[in-house]
Design goal:
It is built from 12 helices and 22 strands. It has 422 residues and is an alpha+beta fold. Strand 7 and strand 8 form a beta hairpin. Bound molecules: adenosine monophosphate (AMP) and glycine (GLY).
């Protein structure tokens, strides 16, 4: 099978690493990829937003399967683009169609979906510029902290947790006034849930589903979960507090009703679902849906997947998911993200990365990297995710830490406490 992966981060490197190990894998391409993905396949300089070039490439290279990493092309309708064209419709694109991708692309859509199907989530209401006064009154009725969410995609910055009524009111006015452009033309205001977060991943063909390993990511830049939010500074899998009882609740109250809701609402969803969950006194609630795998969660999930991902993806595309059981490694995995100095605010790119060849015991998944004239250079805020497996995550973390010192680039920063709260 010839496979095309769309995207260029650590998640896509992990996908390329895993898929290339499959005996079924023929030619593997990554568009646009990074310096790590090219170790497992061929990078192609096509941006993920250019569906017509992706379609033309897929035809001329006899692509049998396309795996979409990031959310933007899904929300923008890459699946629909392929399905609408007679020459492309037989090339399966793993991911939901645009209407189903609204589960991630529109917070309001996701909240209404959860309300319709009795899926536990924070109480909420949605407002736009015409209902600003009602929004301000609604804020008055809430007990802070109050959570405000831009309805649309806002590069991970669209959620604000406000400590007072005054702050929430000012933010609502700013958001509806265009603080996040069109993404905040509608705003969801919701109840603050106090608990501990974790991430559950499933693959679904719209009818059947299989579960992938549970993970937890660490989003804040500083140790002890302090400072600004980032794309993710590290992750662990499994998650010690997610026991059988909690997973049964997740399955019965969240996963199964979501899959049934997708069917009842006639949504075309053949891909990954990422449930961002919070356990409140051991009861799970949905914080958000994502229509893709997480980054850096993928960098701990796939190294724990013993079965062949390409087999699962092939079964997903054929509507036969679950024919081959998902096998998961019992060991714990940790990933530690090396980031550019200054990230998540302004940072420089183009710094030479050295020492990758001396990494022992970890898999260096490339995130923001680029190869130029034989040198590997930094090309983003998140640069390299160092994944290790161990008897437990502390052992795994020790190996990732050692290798974090081995890989060098100017301005390098990483958190030493991934998994500290478990
Ligand atoms: P999101 O962009 O939806 O992932 O939200 C970013 C972060 O905001 C989440 O990972 C949570 O830590 C936090 N958050 C979002 N919604 C709530 C909520 N209702 N209660 C508490 N924390 C929340
Ligand atoms: N690590 C969180 C995300 O991928 O959205």
């Amino acid at each position: 099978m010839n496979v095309l992966i769309i995207g260029n981060g650590g998640r896509e490197h992990a996908l390329a690493w895993k898929i290339s190990q499959s005996p079924l894998c023929g030619n593997l391409f990554i568009a646009p990829g990074n310096a790590g993905t090219q170790l497992h396949g061929t990078n192609v300089a096509i941006p993920p937003s250019n569906f017509s070039e992706i379609g033309a490439f897929a035809l001329s290279n006899n692509i049998d399967l396309i795996v979409v990493g990031p959310e933007a092309p899904l929300v923008d309708g890459i699946v629909d683009y392929f399905l609408d064209r007679p020459d492309l419709k037989n090339i399966p694109v793993i991911g939901p169609a645009a209407d189903a991708a609204q589960l991630e692309g529109s917070k309001g859509f996701a909240k209404a979906f959860m309300e319709d199907y009795d899926i536990p989530t924070a109480a909420y209401r949605e407002f736009d510029v015409d209902s600003l006064q009602e929004g301000l009154a609604y804020i008055e009725e809430q007990t802070p902290p109050i959570v405000l969410k831009a309805d649309g995609l806002a590069a991970g910055k669209g959620v604000l947790i406000c400590g007072s009524h005054e702050e929430a009111k000012l933010e609502l006015i700013e958001m509806l006034g265009g603080k996040f452009g069109g993404a905040s033309a509608r705003v969801v205001i919701e109840e603050f849930l106090s608990g501990i977060e974790f991430s559950v991943f499933v693959m679904t063909d719209g009818e059947n589903y299989v579960r992938l390993p549970v993970a937890k990511d660490y989003k804040r830049i500083g140790e002890g979960d302090t400072g600004l939010n980032t794309g993710g500074m590290g992750a662990v899998s499994p998650v010690s507090f997610v026991d059988e009882t909690l997973m049964e609740k997740v399955e019965d109250r969240i996963i199964i009703p979501t899959i049934k809701g997708i069917q009842t609402s006639n949504l075309n969803y053949k891909g990954f679902i990422f449930f961002g969950l919070i356990s409140v006194d051991q009861d799970p609630f949905v914080i958000e849906y994502n229509c893709r795998l997480g980054d850096p969660e993928t960098e701990v999930i796939l190294p724990r997947l013993k079965s062949d991902l390409l087999v699962h993806l092939q079964e997903l595309a054929a509507g036969k998911l679950g024919t081959t059981p998902v096998e998961i490694e019992g060991k714990a995995a940790t990933t530690v993200m090396l980031v550019s100095g200054g990230y998540p605010e302004a940072y420089e790119k183009g710094k030479q990365i050295t020492g990758l060849e001396n990494v022992v015991g970890s898999i260096p998944f490339h995130a923001g990297t680029l190869e130029e004239q034989g040198q590997i250079l930094t090309n983003g805020g998140r640069v390299i995710a160092l994944t290790s497996l161990g008897k437990n995550f502390r052992e795994a973390l020790k190996v990732s830490q050692q290798n974090a010192d081995v890989v060098q680039f100017e301005g390098k920063y990483f958190r030493k406490d991934i998994g500290f709260d478990l």
